[in-house]
Specification:
This protein is α+β, with helices and mostly antiparallel strands. The protein is built from ten helices and four strands; from the N terminus they run ααβααααββαααβα. The longest helix is centred in the middle third of the chain and has 57 residues.
């Protein structure tokens, strides 16, 4: 143990001796690093940050069902699942392409249109400049970093606006065909119902009556006093005996179709609402504003880290150089 402590003490002394002997070189190189890092830090382009915060909505539709879940309310904030879905949409090429086209970011990022890797560089710069983070409160934070603070604000707010645009495009791609199917189905059901009603009207024109009316015909026939009335009632009774079963069957089918059409109307109205409503899918908590202070570079940190890193590197480099010289003398 004492030998280890003595060895460590000797190493510390060697380090201090080396630093003292090489102090001029260390001061010159460290000073030069300080000057260079200062020049670099003050010539770096300031980058500004604009931030917008949104909450996802719990639902993207208005429910017509009486058994609607309480969580389906349009007033409710979304939870973790909706937040993750919204981040996926924000990171999608659908929003990126619209932002790039709207603000001509290819030119703004100084990427040549003739560069064979222009799209790779564009996406890389875009992902480095525009960040989407889910906060611990369940909201989505949209950060835009740019050398132009006004442009950073405009991009952040435009992305917020595009949430509804892009998600509605995605939703309508499914809801419009579904509505068209529901519409055709409803029209077919209504046409079938009208055809049944036309057949019932035709039979009614011949004198066919519902089942309860036929019992009254028999009673009237039995109570008729004149021969003419009995002949008239007999003719109507014969007609009902001939077409009564058909009339009853058509009437039963009509009632079934009326019930089905009534139930289907809720589904149709839901599909119509989904296909024709441009819904909002987020709650805007905070809009982006023009930053009045740069986000980076942190000049003092750059200077301190560069200077300290150079000093440490030179110390180890000098120690290594001395060790190499000792080994050369031994050989």
């Amino acid at each position: 143990m004492e030998e280890n402590q003595a060895s460590m003490q000797e190493q510390r002394m060697n380090l201090l001796v080396t630093i003292w002997r090489k102090r001029k070189i260390l001061l010159i190189v460290t000073g030069a690093a300080l000057v260079v890092s200062t020049i670099i830090a003050f010539t770096m382009t300031p980058i500004y940050r604009s931030t917008a915060i949104v909450f996802p909505a719990a639902t993207s539709t208005v429910s017509f069902s009486e058994q609607r879940n309480a969580k389906a309310s349009a007033m409710d904030f979304g939870e973790e699942e909706q937040a993750e879905q919204l981040i996926q949409i924000l990171q999608s090429s659908k929003i990126r392409d619209k932002v790039v086209a709207r603000f001509d970011l290819m030119k703004h990022y100084e990427i040549s249109p003739d560069d064979p890797n222009k799209f790779y560089k564009l996406v890389k710069q875009y992902n480095n400049s525009i960040l989407f983070v889910r906060t611990r409160f369940g909201s989505i934070q949209i950060d835009v970093l740019d050398r132009d603070p006004v442009l950073a604000r405009d991009i952040a707010n435009k992305i917020v606006d595009l949430i509804d645009t892009v998600k509605n495009e995605m939703v309508l791609a499914r809801t419009v065909p579904a509505f068209e199917i529901n519409k055709r189905k409803k029209e077919q059901m209504e046409a079938d119902q009208q055809a049944l009603l036309a057949q019932l009207d035709s039979l009614a024109a011949k004198g066919v009556v519902p089942l309860e009316g036929r019992a009254q015909l028999f009673s009237a026939y039995m109570e008729a006093k004149s021969q003419e009335d009995r002949i008239a009632y007999k003719a109507r009774i014969d007609t009902n005996l001939k077409y009564g079963a058909t009339f009853d069957g058509l009437e039963f089918i009509r009632n079934e179709k009326i019930m089905k059409l009534s139930d289907f109307t809720v589904s149709y109205e839901q599909a119509e609402s989904d296909a024709n409503t441009a819904f909002t899918h987020k709650f805007v908590v905070e809009e982006a504003v023009v930053a009045d202070k740069k986000d980076r570079p942190k000049r003092l940190i750059i200077m301190l880290l560069s200077t300290f890193g150079t000093f440490v590197f030179m110390v180890f480099a000098l120690l290594a150089w001395d060790k190499i010289n000792e080994l050369r003398k031994l050989t």
